[in-house]
Amino acid sequence: NDEALYEDEPRVRLFLSLAIGRTGGPQCYEPLKAALEGAKGVEEQSVYIRALGFLGDPKVVDVLLPMLEHTDTVLRHETVQALGFIGVEKSRSGLRTMLNDPEPNVRWDAAVALAKMEDMAAKPVLMELLDRDYYESFPDVRAEGRTRAMVTAARAAVLLNDPELNVKIKQLSESDPNIRVRGTALEIVKQHKLE
After folding, report:
1. Residues 6+ apart with CB under 8 A from 148
2. Looking at beta carbons, which pairs linking 45-48 to residues 24 or more positions away fall under 8 Å?
């Protein structure tokens, strides 16, 4: 009803921003940029960052790069993901810096973004992500989260066409205890003809 819509107007606006980011064109850049600049709080900012990333417009990078220095982990993480989605050269240096971020999720997504750009700086983080023992130092990461991280890392790692990473993917295809990780790795081995 109309009354509920007005009561929840900020949430509706955030939802619509994400939809605009997914479906909108270049004309949506200015309104989303203005919304980010006027956002109140991390939740709003993170939604507008994500929406700008969904646009995929390279001019968004200039707006997003300063957000990599934000003190809030959520905003840095959203920014890394948005820059990874856009994937342009201008973001390379900022993404490389994020490989040393204190927050693991930021580092991990920076590595994936850089791998999509075929940047070898991502290799050390991807090697960690492909090592099941690495996750022992993250007891809060559940089994499903580990699986998702390993699958994503394998799909990103193969883009670097690095012998060590390829061997690691092949090993996962042969012996990882998780069927989803093993299956994804096997699919990658076959598709990319890894030896």
Report:
1. none
2. 45/75, 45/78, 46/74, 46/75, 46/78, 47/14, 47/17, 47/18, 48/17
Alpha-carbon gap, residue 114 to 172, rounded angstroms: 22
Which residue carries 């809030």 as its tokens?
72
Q: List, for residues 128-169, the tens digit of each pLDDT value.
A: 999 999 999 999 999 999 999 999 999 999 999 999 999 999
| CB < 8 Å & 24+ apart, contacts of 62-65 | 62/90, 63/33, 63/36, 64/91, 65/90, 65/91, 65/94
Contact 94, 68 (CB under 8 A): yes
pTM for this entry: 0.89
CA-based R_g, the chain, Å: 19
Q: Exposed/middle/buried for 155, CB within 10 Å: 0-12, 13-18, 19+?
A: middle
Written as six digits, the tokens of 190 are 């076959």
> What is the spatial distance between Cα 61 and Cα 89, in angstroms, rounded to a whole number?
10
| DSSP secondary structure string for all residues of 135-151 | GGG-TTS-HHHHHHHHH
